[in-house]
Specification:
Blueprint lengths: L2 E4 L6 H10 L8 E4 L10 H10 L4 E3 L3 H11 L11 H4 L4 H9 L4 E4 L2 E4 L9 H16 L3 H6 L15 H14 L2 E2 L5 E2 L14 E2 L10 E4 L15 E4 L9 E6 L5 E5 L6
Parallel strand pairs: 1-2, 2-3, 5-9, 9-10
Antiparallel strand pairs: 1-11, 4-5, 6-7, 6-8, 11-12
Helix pairs in contact: 6-8
C-alpha cells in the first residue's frame, strides 16, 4: 500500500498513464493524490478528468486555478481563453457528471502531518484553519448559490486574508491563496503579477515557502512550473510537484511514504 502524489497534469493524459504504469500504481491498494490543475493547456483534458474520476476512492484531489476556470466557464458565465483546451470536456456527453465530480473536490487535503493544496498555504494558517477555509469554499460550491459564486469568483481583491472578511470577498481570497499564490510579503499580501522564477519576485515579496511557520507541517503543492519542483531556501517542510509537463518538462510522482520521486518526460515538445 503506497500513496503517490502527482504534480499538475494539465491535460497530459499520455504522460499520466505512463507515469502510473512506471510506478506500478494499483488502485486496489494504492492511493493517488493529485495536486490540482488536472486540465487545460494539454491535449487530453477530457481523458485526464475521466481517468481521475474513474479511479474513485483511490484518488484524493484538490482544485487548482485551471479547474476553477473550467467551472467558471461551464457554470459561471466565463469565457474560454485563446489557449484553452477545454472544448472536449464542454462538448462531452459526460460533461455534467464530470463537472459535478470536479465541483465536489476540496481545496486542501490532510493526512497525518501532511497537507496538500494546489498553490500552497499562508504561513499563518494552521492545518486546521486551512481545512476549515477549504470547507467554506466547498460549501459555497455545493450550495444553491454556486452559480452566482462562480460568476463573481475571479479577481485580485482582497489581496490579503483577514478573519473579518465576509461573503464573496472572503471566498475569493481563500480561493486565491489556495490556487494562485506564489509571492507574498511579510504581512501576507499576495502578488498576482509575477509568475516566473524566484528572480521575478517584486520588491518586498518572497515565495510563500520562504516564510517560517509555527509548526512542522509537511506541505505539498504544484502550480509553480517555473520552480521545476524545487523550493530553494525554504523555511518550512515543503515539496513542489509541478515539473512543467505541459511546457515540455516532465510529470512527477512522489512516494509520500519514502519521498522517492519518479518522473516521465513530457511529450508536449515545449509548448
Amino acid at each position: 500500500m503506497s500513496t503517490y502524489v502527482i504534480g499538475d497534469l494539465h491535460g497530459c493524459h499520455v504522460e499520466f498513464i505512463s507515469l502510473l504504469e512506471t510506478i506500478n500504481f494499483n488502485p486496489a491498494h494504492d492511493t493517488l493524490w493529485l495536486v490540482g490543475d488536472l486540465i487545460n493547456r494539454g491535449p487530453g483534458s477530457l481523458a485526464c478528468l475521466q481517468e481521475a474520476k474513474a479511479l474513485g476512492s483511490a484518488v484524493r484531489c484538490v482544485l487548482g486555478n485551471h479547474d476553477f476556470h473550467l467551472l467558471v466557464v461551464a457554470r459561471g458565465g466565463g469565457k474560454l481563453k485563446k489557449n484553452d483546451t477545454l472544448d472536449d470536456i464542454l462538448a462531452s456527453p459526460q460533461r455534467e457528471a464530470l463537472l459535478d465530480w470536479l465541483q465536489s473536490q476540496p481545496l486542501a487535503v490532510q493526512e497525518g502531518n501532511t497537507l496538500m493544496t494546489h498553490a500552497g498555504v499562508l504561513p499563518s494558517w494552521s492545518a486546521e484553519q486551512a481545512l476549515a477555509l477549504s470547507g467554506e469554499v466547498q460549501e459555497a460550491l455545493q450550495g444553491e448559490s454556486a452559480g452566482s459564486f462562480l460568476t463573481q469568483l475571479f479577481g485580485n481583491q482582497p489581496d490579503r486574508f483577514r478573519e473579518d472578511l465576509e461573503g464573496l470577498d472572503r471566498l475569493r481570497c481563500i480561493v486565491n491563496v489556495f490556487t494562485r499564490m506564489r509571492f507574498i510579503d511579510a504581512q501576507e499580501h499576495l502578488d498576482f503579477a509575477a509568475k516566473e522564477g524566484l528572480d521575478s519576485a517584486p520588491t518586498g515579496f518572497a515565495p510563500w515557502f520562504q516564510f517560517a511557520r509555527q509548526d512542522d507541517l509537511h506541505i505539498l503543492f504544484g502550480h509553480w512550473a517555473a520552480l521545476e519542483g524545487r523550493t530553494p531556501n525554504a523555511k518550512i517542510n515543503v515539496q513542489g510537484l509541478d515539473t512543467g509537463c505541459v511546457w515540455g518538462g516532465s510529470l512527477t510522482a512522489m512516494n509520500l511514504d519514502t519521498g522517492e520521486r519518479t518522473s516521465v518526460p513530457s511529450l508536449q515538445g515545449g509548448r
